[in-house]
Specification:
Radius of gyration: 25 Å
Number of domains: 1
Strand content: over 45%
CATH topology: Immunoglobulin-like
Largest sheet: 4 strands, antiparallel
CATH class: Mainly Beta
Distance between the termini: 72 Å
Number of strands: 7
Helix content: under 10%
Length: about 120
């Protein structure tokens, strides 16, 4: 299974994966999330058949490919987009907003009356 080059960058509020896939077609690319926090990009590049051609050299990688990327705990798995343009697949994984800090609970202090225990 061939590997394909990728860049992973963090931008405000998201992670962006840019994966080179020259020669691939959108129908040959699959983007999935496995085990809750693993982004999996897979597919297959096929060489066009030319029965009259006799190759002198074959350097371009063809065949199946797959890449796995661990996602952080704050990844919003419901907000993932993928766009394929000019041989580059861009997958954007939005991050969940940070949790609100817990507010201190205030206990009312009553005047008078004793607490018996």
């Amino acid at each position: 299974m061939a590997s394909t080059p990728a860049d992973v960058k963090e931008v405000p509020g998201a992670l962006v994966f840019e994966i080179d896939m020259p020669g691939a077609k959108t129908g040959e690319i699959k983007v999935q999330v496995e085990d809750d926090h693993t982004l999996v990009v897979s597919g297959e590049r096929r060489r066009a058949e030319d029965k009259e051609a006799k190759y002198q050299r074959m350097e371009r990688r063809m065949g199946k490919f797959m890449r796995r990327f661990p996602l952080p705990e704050d990844a919003n798995l419901e907000a993932i987009t993928a766009c394929f343009e000019e041989g580059v697949l861009t997958v954007r994984v939005e991050k969940k907003p940070p949790p609100e800090p817990k507010k201190a609970k205030t206990i009312e202090v009553k005047v008078g009356g004793s607490s018996e225990g």
